[in-house]
Design brief:
Helix 14 packs antiparallel against helix 15 (300-314). The longest helix has 24 residues, at 15-38. Helices cover 80% and strands 0% of the residues. By secondary structure, it is mainly α. The chain is globular and about 75 Å long.
Length: 319
């Protein structure tokens, strides 16, 4: 037999063999493709640290609402660490806004404004119009006499500042309408400005808009505080029965939130208004309830303030 023919017989692939080989290769290739398509796809962006930072912020804000500032700063500090590690401008700015808010509520206005100023600088660098406007609104809120040593400010100066703050907020509101919580905060600042200007009806309407947003989104502590402010506005206007009604509403929301600091403040304010209205016994009951709540929540300074008002009302003097 011819050697070439022998080689062809043993070594040359037949048509059937070629077809089988081709089929095998296609099958392997398709299997590979199938396995790739069924594998979990990698996300286009990772949000682990940013989500964790937002979670810490939420806890920090809750602590602020309860006036537990030591705990609030711990949560916010951790949120800042996570924001820095992810190098996300928006998260950094949100943490700075919350940090400033904590300092402001604690009574350190200078530290609050410095922190909000940093938030504004970073928002402008990031070209984030929403957070630029929000930062401006926070800084404007810090200028109001509400919560400040009012006795050190002249009436004309307070009203001039309030009018300026109101104008600032109104100018920036168009940029924050997509964020309900920032919008609620803006309405609250407008309401406080109107209160400084003695525009009682406008002040209450603005705070009610904030309360509607907070209640819709189930921010119970914030809703309670909105009604606390409404009570303050009505009291300033001499509308004691409706102010008492507003405080009862605040109490109902703080009860739902199990917010002892808010409840203690609500009852303390209720006692003050009942006293102004000449309802001495009801004032005593409210001051007593406030004292009990503060003591049970281990808030001795607040409890002492409530006891002082109770003792004065009873004519026993300060013990």
């Amino acid at each position: 037999m011819n050697m070439k023919r022998i080689q062809a017989l043993f070594f040359a692939p037949s048509a059937a063999a070629l077809a089988l080989t081709a089929t095998f290769i296609v099958a392997i290739t398709m299997a590979g493709l199938a396995s790739c398509s069924s594998a979990p796809k990698r996300p286009p962006e990772i949000f682990t640290n940013r989500n964790a930072a937002n979670g810490q912020l939420d806890l920090g804000n809750q602590a602020v609402n309860k006036s537990d500032y030591a705990t609030a700063h711990l949560f916010i500090k951790e949120a800042w660490r996570l924001a820095v590690s992810s190098d996300d401008p928006e998260t950094r700015i949100k943490v700075l806004l919350a940090d400033g808010n904590a300092w402001f509520n604690e009574g350190n206005r200078e530290k609050a404004d410095t922190t909000w100023a940093q938030a504004l600088t970073e928002a402008e660098a990031a070209q984030n119009r929403t957070l630029v406007s929000t930062s401006k609104i926070y800084r404007a809120r810090g200028l109001l006499a509400e919560g400040n040593a009012v006795g050190t400010l002249q009436e004309t100066e307070r009203q001039k500042t309030a009018a300026s703050v109101k104008a600032t907020v109104l100018a920036e509101m168009g940029n924050i309408k997509s964020n309900p919580l920032y919008t609620a905060f803006a309405w609250k600042v407008i309401g406080l400005s109107e209160k400084e200007l003695s525009n009682w009806s406008d002040a209450e309407n603005a705070i009610k808009k904030a309360a509607d947003i907070h209640e819709k989104n189930r921010y119970l502590e914030d809703t309670a505080y909105d009604w606390y402010l409404i009570a303050s506005i009505r009291s300033k206007a001499g509308q004691y029965p409706s102010a008492i009604q507003a405080l009862r509403t605040a109490i109902s929301f703080d009860r739902r939130a199990e917010n002892p600091n808010g409840l203690g403040m609500d009852w303390l304010a209720l006692g003050t208004i009942e006293e102004k209205a000449g309802n001495t016994q009801k004032a005593v009951e409210a001051y007593t309830r406030s004292t009990e709540i503060f003591k049970s929540a281990f808030l001795p300074l607040n409890a002492a303030a409530a006891e002082k008002k109770l003792s004065a009302l009873k004519g026993e003097g300060v013990k």
